[in-house]
UniProtKB/TrEMBL annotation:
Organism: Phytophthora fragariae
Principal subcellular localization: cytoplasm
Protein name (Swiss-Prot/TrEMBL): Eukaryotic peptide chain release factor subunit 1
Keyword set, alphabetical order: Cytoplasm, Membrane, Protein biosynthesis, Transmembrane, Transmembrane helix
InterPro entries referenced in this protein's UniProt entry, alphabetically: eFR1_2_sf (IPR042226), eRF1_1_sf (IPR024049), eRF1_2 (IPR005141), eRF1_3 (IPR005142), eRF1_Pelota-like_N (IPR005140), Peptide_chain-rel_eRF1/aRF1 (IPR004403), Ribosomal_eL30-like_sf (IPR029064)
Transmembrane segments: 43-67, 79-96, 117-135, 141-160, 428-455, 483-501
Localisation: Cytoplasm
eRF1/Pelota-like N-terminal domain residues: 536-672
Annotated family: Belongs to the eukaryotic release factor 1 family.
Length: 969
């Protein structure tokens, strides 16, 4: 008996689509992010608004009136318009469904989808019109005659678009076959439900009750067919299955309800639905076994406090996180590289400290009471490096800080348990989404069907629908009673499901359903935008600029023998095959080089370039940059260098050079700021011309002038002196205007985006209103400011006064950032740090909101290995400390440490700053504020999220200049 029961359970579970999949890591993180950002109004709007476009698209066709078919096609021109509209919508949906299923390997631009849909619809309707003229109107068996033609015409543009890629990519062929299976499943629905409905309407009421039990079985069968067809789509499987199989099934249930006057048929289907929902909830409860134990293992002994990552900054304040929050945090950490598993992102708190009232008012001050001799301190440093973060207990915020000298057991979640926990949560979320969408469809489709029936009843085309034969308004309302009653019962079932899932999973499932609906509402008419290589924000943009600068410096310093160093820059939309052919031709030319050594080097470089080029099927959106060749190292050895990357912004230069050096001149345009502002500062002593772009402030030209001042001479000479004075002022304004044209006009166009006029007298206004001033420059004057000085001091003051206009210029942003940093220091808020040592401690705590680095900071990060023990240690050393031998000796054993890695600290931060949950800002020493920060504060500091008492933090290193951090390995 038990074996039969197990077999039945196994068969049942094998047919349940929701048990066959799991959420991906990215899906869990996206869901957590959406739930944190969505509000109730947005949730309700998505739930209610999702079906509205479907209803409108369906109703539009019925607003086109039809006339008596006996009058022929000449009287029914709108019939052809209806058909054109219908086939356009069908073609759009078909092509979009295909491109959605294969979008990871094949592309189909939205403009082409619209164009092809219109062409296919026009050709189909043209064929239909020809058949009508030949056979007659109305055309018998229209669907059977026209649909095969439409199918053929729909497949042709997809074949043209993808033929070449399909020949080169076997994976694309397999995915396309799966989408063909999905299409066949869609057509199978058309051949299953209409015959079922016909048979249903011919049966007696008693027979209808029995026959209605086939509907859940048909839906179950179609779900499994669809699920197997779209299994390769992963996270999108629930949505595609429900919005294909179950929408169709729910629609025909609504048809059956309005055709059956028996309330018992409705109750029967409702009982079946409730039973199926109960079984699904049982499956969820079964899958949930062991989840609570794993959560307790995480939560017991530790205090969740805060986290900063892709889901945003989660502040828990001592409360336990929800299942979704906990899983999203753990999964995000799993996706990070080993280097990203820094202790700065640890969430498990090893000790609870209590703040007094004053500290609580100022914000959470992080205090650690660890001494060198404390076993707790050794345990923390051994297990978590210098990353243990101690946060206040939210429930005991009124007590004094006390040192807890007890040994704290460090219970962490093992890798196996963590994977088991996240796998369970991913599976549960997948099941919950499937159930929610299923029940949502069961509620919405009958409601939409009822609205559709009521609206079309009052439209002129109702006489052509058999459903309205011999029915008046009262009978219509009576007919819809069963449908609305079924809809009401399904709504109660849906609300019950939401309540049960919230109790079982502890997450906001209504918002999960909304997240999925919002995803499914991404209309095909909105072209996707690629942000693969684009920085996420302005701070990331500056980091990318820094990386390009460092790359350019490294490439410029490289030298090789002969002409074995290839520089290849391909602008966007360039054809990769053309470049490959050019390299093949170069290969033939290089074969004729007389020097054997040089010939082999050049051929090797060209071969490497060709191999790099094969990694790209088409040119990336921003272009492609490749450097290949053999360089000579400082030790005189040869080293092969192969670099290929997509720049973070489009590059419009085409270059191929084979030389003894890499050509990086074209990369300079990546460093240029998009906005370059010009300045003219003029007063009675002279004029200065300057430009501000990015973090650069440049004085272009300046000259002095000797203008006559006002005087008290009278008599006959007064008019002559006044005339001479005005003449010299006029000549001065003329010279300023002519010089401005020379400096700011290139190739008949301004070489600046905007111009600022400044001065201490009225000269700036005279220049701005003068006919001598070039109209092209006058058109881009954005601000006229009064300054107290002339010359360079006036230039600096003009930049400050025009700060709003220059808000996006890096030079101004840098000044504002450092001023904000200095204000924190002046206020003694405690929310700042400077120097390498304190800044690394604050980063380790996750307390740094903005990390400020001098881009020329000379410090290096060393990874040192003790050869006898194999232990590795990371140190940050200044240039003077690099020459001290004791820094490369193990303090305990006296063994010499081997250098495993030496990386400039600024470069290491450029690649790893995100693991600390901070934003990175580079500054220069070009401005007065920047120079003060670099020279007076060590070139490294940060603005903190909360106050940190560095005096209380004793981390087993002597001072800030000798920072030894086990956490940054």
């Amino acid at each position: 008996m038990g074996r039969k029961r197990s077999s039945l359970i196994g068969m049942w579970e094998a047919t349940q689509v929701e048990l066959q999949g799991t959420y991906s890591t990215g899906r869990v993180i996206d869901l957590a992010k959406y739930i944190r950002s969505a509000n109730s109004v947005r949730v309700v709007a998505v739930i209610i608004g999702t079906p509205v476009p479907c209803l409108l698209v369906t109703l539009i066709i019925d607003f086109m009136p039809l006339f008596d078919p006996s009058k022929g096609i000449e009287a029914n021109k709108l019939f052809l318009v209806r058909e054109f509209y219908g086939f356009t919508v069908m073609t759009l949906l078909a092509i979009h469904q295909f491109r959605t299923g294969v979008r990871t390997v094949l592309s189909y631009p939205t403009k082409r989808v619209i164009r092809d849909a219109l062409i296919v619809a026009a050709l189909t309707v043209g064929g239909l019109y020809g058949a009508i003229l030949w056979i007659g109107f109305p055309l018998p068996f229209t669907t059977l005659l026209v649909v095969p033609v439409w199918l053929t015409l729909t497949v042709i543009p997809m074949g043209i678009q993808w033929a070449k890629d399909l020949l080169e990519n076997p994976k694309a062929v397999a995915m396309l076959i799966d989408m063909v299976k999905l299409w066949l499943c869609d057509f199978l629905l058309v051949f299953i439900y209409p015959p079922y409905f016909y048979v249903f309407t011919t049966l007696t009421h008693t027979a209808q009750m029995a026959f209605a039990l086939l509907l859940p079985l048909i839906k179950l069968f179609m779900r499994n067919l669809f699920a197997r067809a779209v299994a390769h789509l992963g996270d999108e499987t629930p949505g595609l299955v429900i919005f294909n199989a179950d929408v169709f099934g729910s629609l025909f249930i609504a048809y059956c309800m309005q055709s059956s006057p028996s309330i018992w048929t409705t109750m029967e289907l409702m009982v079946v639905a409730v039973c199926l929902m109960g079984l699904s909830l049982r499956d969820i409860e079964h899958a949930r076994k062991g989840l609570g134990e794993l959560e307790r293992k995480v939560d017991s002994g530790y205090m969740w406090s805060s986290y900063h990552g892709a889901v945003g900054h989660i502040s828990l304040g001592g409360r336990l996180p929800t299942t979704l929050e906990r899983a999203s945090i753990l999964l995000e950490r799993e996706t990070q590289s080993p280097a990203n598993n820094s202790r700065s992102s640890q969430l498990l708190e090893l000790k609870r400290m209590i703040l007094d009232d004053e500290q609580e008012r100022e914000g959470p001050t992080l205090v650690t009471k660890i001494t060198k001799k404390s076993s707790v301190g050794h345990d923390i440093l051994r297990m978590f490096g210098s990353s243990a973060r101690i946060h206040p207990d939210a429930e005991q915020s009124g007590k004094k800080v006390e040192e807890d000298t007890r040994s704290t057991g460090s219970r962490t979640l093992g890798v196996q348990d963590r994977l088991k926990y996240t796998r369970k949560v991913r599976r549960l979320l997948y099941m919950a989404e499937f159930l929610l969408l299923l029940n949502y469809v069961e509620v919405v489709i009958p409601l939409i069907f009822s609205i559709y029936l009521v609206i079309t009843y009052y439209l002129p085309n109702r006489e052509y629908y058999a459903i309205y034969d011999g029915i008046d308004q009262i009978q219509l309302m009576q007919t819809l009673t069963n449908v609305l009653f079924y809809c009401l019962l399904q709504l109660a079932s849906f609300l019950l499901l939401v309540f049960m899932l919230r109790r079982m999973l502890g997450t906001e499932k209504r918002q999960e359903a909304t997240s999925e609906l919002r995803h499914l509402l991404s209309l095909p008419l909105i072209p996707p935008t690629s942000t693969m290589s684009a920085p996420a924000n302005a701070a990331d943009d500056q980091v990318e600029l820094f990386k390009v600068k460092k790359l350019i410096k490294s490439l410029q310093a490289a030298r090789g023998n002969g002409t074995s160093m290839i520089s290849l820059i391909i602008p966007p939309k360039q054809q990769i095959p053309l470049i490959s052919k050019m390299l093949s031709d170069e290969m033939g030319t290089a074969s004729n080089i007389k020097s054997r050594v040089n010939r082999l080097s050049v051929l090797g470089a060209i071969t490497s370039t060709q191999q790099r080029l094969k990694l790209y099927s088409k040119c990336p959106p921003n272009g492609l940059i490749i450097y290949c060749g053999t360089i000579i190292t400082d030790e005189g050895k040869e080293k092969r260098v192969n670099i290929d990357f997509e720049p973070f912004r489009p590059i419009n230069t085409s270059l191929y050079m084979c030389d003894n050096k890499f050509h990086t001149e074209a990369l300079g345009e990546l460093l240029q700021d998009n906005d370059r502002f010009g300045f003219i500062i003029m007063d009675g002593n002279g004029a200065l011309y300057g430009a501000v772009s990015g973090s650069n402030r440049e004085i272009l030209h300046k000259f002095s002038v000797d203008l006559p001042k006002k005087h008290g001479r009278g008599g006959q000479s007064a008019l002559r002196f006044a005339r001479l004075r005005l003449e010299k002022r006029h000549n001065y304004v003329r010279k300023v205007a002519e010089t401005a044209t020379q400096l700011f006009i290139t190739n008949d166009q301004p070489n600046i985006s905007n111009l600022v006029l400044a001065g201490s007298a009225d000269f700036k206004n005279e220049l701005n209103g003068s006919d001598l001033f070039d109209k092209r420059l006058a058109a881009i004057v954005v601000k006229v400011v009064d300054v107290s000085y002339g010359g360079e001091n006036g230039f600096n003051q003009a930049i400050e006064l025009a700060a709003e206009t220059l808000a996006n210029v890096k030079f101004v942003q840098e000044k504002k950032l450092i001023v904000a940093y200095m204000e924190e220091i002046a206020l003694d808020s405690g929310k700042y740090c400077f120097g390498v040592g304190d800044t690394m401690k604050a980063l380790d705590l996750g307390a740094v909101e903005t990390l400020i680095l001098w881009e020329d900071l000379p410090h290096h990060r060393y990874v040192l290995r003790n050869e006898s023990t194999g232990a590795e240690t990371a140190k940050i050393l200044s240039p003077s400390e690099e020459s001290v031998d004791s820094n490369f000796v193990d303090a305990d054993t006296g063994a010499k440490l081997e250098t495993v890695e030496r990386v400039p600290l600024v470069e290491w931060f450029a690649n790893n700053y995100k693991q600390f949950g901070t934003t990175l800002e580079f500054v220069t020493a070009r401005s007065q504020e920047g120079s003060q920060f670099c020279q007076g504060f060590g070139g490294m500091g940060g603005i903190l999220r909360w106050k940190v008492d560095f005096m209380e933090m004793d981390y087993e290193f002597d001072d800030d200049d000798d920072f030894d951090e086990d956490a940054f390995m």
